[in-house]
Design goal:
Pfam families: GGDEF_2, HTH_18, Response_reg
Number of strands: 10
Strand order of the largest sheet: 2-1-3-4-5
Strand content: 5-15%
Largest sheet: 5 strands, parallel
Protein name: Response regulator
Order of helices and strands: EHEHEHEHEHHEHEEHEHEHHHHHHHHHHH
Distance between the termini: 70 Å
Helix content: 55-70%
Keywords: DNA-binding, Phosphoprotein, Transcription, Transcription regulation
Shape: flat
Number of helices: 20
């Protein structure tokens, strides 16, 4: 709906024009009237109309003066001047003020509607174009973080960037200050007990939506395990060190208000070229290895050579996280953790061969843990000596994937075996330990399988099967409810009745009546 303001010093002219609009222009709404230039200025500010019909000859502030004043605060409003003067001088002034059209007094109703309609259509087109641009802007804003994360992924982790990398950078724009460095945001839970570990997805969402009070452009990468990489570009005249510390402190202060997590930041060295940012990322990882520093951030340039050499062997905590992710079933996250360990080795300039041996040792521990959980997995091995860190990462991820594929096949067979066993022995006393023993697995692993694949624990699965069997016996046999109770595995008819009603919604007696009622009807 187009919002219209009528300005004229003659009340009868205002009333007549409003009536014409209301009867002949359904897409235009008259939101107000003004009797002079001053009222017009005030009404335009208050009502924010899209279109104003402006009488020129009015006492005090005339129409052209009012237009000029309204234009100062509302550039988008369209004006149609209404005048008895048809002179060249007037036309010049009107054009200068950006008047869209004009009507002479008096005008036929058809001319009024045609003129108003022409301007209204122009306003609609402009509004649609603005709405379309706004929608595109919203889409771009939503897409920008995803594009930034993809760019960071390629710059820091891929040895060979895709052909679309330059196009993605052009899409979001490269900051004017192209010098930059990498930060790694490392999160740890305030609670030390493993039972209080939580998913970091919520924290990443908070980080991605956070607007730091800094002038430095920042490209945020994807969360990998408990770390988020960020590329920070230089801005202003302050030194790299001053800007790095300032941004780090802003991150820490902002995220401390969120609660539940502790943030530590490793800061890599300054790079003059985007292609060198991978080196800064390795430096940031090394700087973040000792996250016990009270400042809660560390610059790579502060590390000594002895510090760097020692860091290469301090990946025990990261190796523990690999095992924890495997235990929780987060296999992709486990692969990300191993990739980070390899990055640490590369940054510390350990040889590829030594790094491969260390990763192999981690995978052996993973295999043993899976076997202890009851999974039948093969021992991993590297078929040949790795020649690059990139190759080592790819092969390590593939080895983990192979373990998973073996485990999936084994789990499918185990579930089928346990399902058939429960159905065959449902009338007996069935404990979790007994079910686990039939497939030679530990009870914890069996319980985990049931929850993951059936969405319930084993006792709920057993209960549902028993109740379905009872319903079938009620329908197909003349056995008493007491006989059915014992046959499906319950020793107490009252307890069986409560369980049945909870799952079915009716007591066993009422349910049986519902079944036999149709057969008791007498036929005439």
């Amino acid at each position: 709906m187009i919002r219209m303001l009528i300005v004229d010093d003659e009340p009868i002219e205002r009333i007549a024009l409003q009536r014409i609009i209301e009867e002949g222009s359904p897409d235009v709404e008259v939101v107000g009237q003004a009797a002079n230039g001053r009222e017009a200025i005030e009404a335009a500010e208050r009502l924010q109309p899209d279109l104003i019909t402006m009488d020129i000859k009015m006492p005090g502030i005339n129409g052209l003066q009012a237009i000029e004043k309204i234009r100062e605060t509302n550039k988008a409003v369209k004006f149609i001047v209404v005048t008895a003067f048809d002179t060249f001088e007037f036309a010049q002034q009107a054009i200068k003020l950006g008047v869209y059209d004009y009507m002479l007094k008096p005008s036929r109703i058809s001319v009024v509607l045609e003129t108003i309609g022409r301007v209204a259509n122009e306003i609609k087109m402009i509004q649609q174009e603005l709405a379309s641009r706004s929608l595109e802007q919203v889409r771009l804003q939503k897409m920008t973080p995803l594009v930034e994360a993809d760019i960071v992924e390629q710059l820091l982790f891929d040895y060979v960037q895709s052909a679309s990398l330059a196009e993605m950078i052009d899409l979001i724009g490269l900051p004017s200050g192209r010098d930059g460095f990498v930060m790694t945001l490392q999160f740890s839970h305030d609670m030390a007990e493993p039972s209080h570990l939580r998913d970091y997805d919520d924290m990443y969402l908070q980080v991605s939506e956070l607007h730091l009070d800094v002038s430095n452009p920042i490209w945020l990468g994807k969360m990998s395990g408990n770390q988020v990489p960020a590329i920070v570009f230089m801005d202003g005249e302050f030194s790299y060190r001053a800007q790095a510390i300032s941004v780090a402190k802003k991150w820490i202060q902002a995220l401390d208000t969120k609660g539940g997590f502790r943030l530590f930041i490793g800061i890599g060295g300054l790079c003059k070229d985007l292609r060198d940012l991978r080196k800064s990322y390795h430096e940031a990882l090394l700087a973040s290895m000792d996250n016990t520093l009270p400042a809660r951030y560390s610059l790579f340039e502060n590390l000594t050579r002895d510090d760097i050499q020692a860091i290469g062997s301090r990946t025990i905590e990261m190796e523990k996280r690999v095992l924890e992710e495997i235990r929780r079933g987060n296999l992709e996250a486990a692969g990300d953790q191993i990739a980070k360990i390899i990055d640490i080795f590369e940054g510390a300039q350990q040889g590829v061969g030594l790094s491969q041996q260390r990763v192999f040792e981690v995978l052996i521990v993973v295999t043993r843990m899976l076997q202890e959980m009851g999974m039948d997995v093969h021992t991993p091995y590297f078929p040949y000596s790795t020649t690059s860190y990139m190759q080592l990462k790819a092969e390590s991820r593939q080895l983990i994937q192979n373990l998973v594929q073996v485990g999936d096949v084994v789990e499918t067979d185990l579930l089928q075996t346990m399902k058939l066993y429960i159905q065959k022995h449902a009338h007996e006393e069935l404990s979790l330990e007994r079910i686990a023993a039939t497939v030679d697995r530990n009870p914890f692993y069996v319980s985990k399988l049931f929850k993951e694949h059936f969405g319930m624990n084993y006792i709920d699965f057993l209960t549902e099967f028993r109740i379905e069997t009872a319903k079938q016996l009620m329908q197909e046999t003349d056995k008493s409810l007491k006989e059915i109770t014992f046959e499906v595995g319950y020793n107490d008819p009252n307890y069986f009745s409560r369980v049945f009603k909870k799952l079915v919604g009716h007591s066993p007696t009422d349910y049986r009546k519902m079944l036999i009622r149709p057969t008791n009807k007498k036929h005439s």
